[in-house]
Design goal:
By secondary structure, this protein is mainly α. The chain has one domain. Helix content is 76%, strand content 0%. It is built from 4 helices and no strands. Helix 1 packs antiparallel against helix 4, helix 2 runs antiparallel to helix 3 and helix 3 runs antiparallel to helix 4. The model has no long low-confidence stretch (mean pLDDT 87).
Length: 121
């Protein structure tokens, strides 16, 4: 399911940056938020369904903290890689591979923690 969210993020970035000519930071931002909205919905409904004990509001707050961190990192990293000669269509993939690793850990053990796991603060 994460692949679908990434695909939306990636396509929005590429369409915004290349044919539409949006500034890289804006195109990256639009793609990022498109993908993250889909990611939260998919993870909450299907991937971690039935394993949640936290109230929706708490999950949203934890998720928003992760979103802010990921957003700032993603925009910075894609822009940085571009300044180093790595085009956004490659840089975005590299950045997302890294982000997906820590996202899974945060989703699994914090935001959507299962009932049989201790709650993290």
């Amino acid at each position: 399911m994460g692949i679908f969210a990434f695909a939306v993020d990636y396509v929005v970035l590429l369409l915004g940056y290349y044919p539409l000519g949006l500034p890289l930071k804006l195109a990256t931002s639009l793609g990022f938020f498109s993908g993250f909205i889909i990611s939260f919905s998919i993870n909450r409904k299907w991937v971690f369904a039935g394993k949640q004990r936290k109230h929706l509001v708490r999950q949203v707050i934890e998720y928003l903290i992760l979103v802010v961190f990921n957003y700032l990192f993603t925009v910075w990293a894609v822009s940085f890689l571009n300044s180093q000669g790595i085009k956004p269509f490659i840089g975005k993939v590299l950045v997302m591979m890294l982000v997906m690793c820590w996202n899974y850990a945060c989703f699994r053990w914090v935001i959507f923690a299962g009932k049989d796991e201790p709650e993290t603060v």
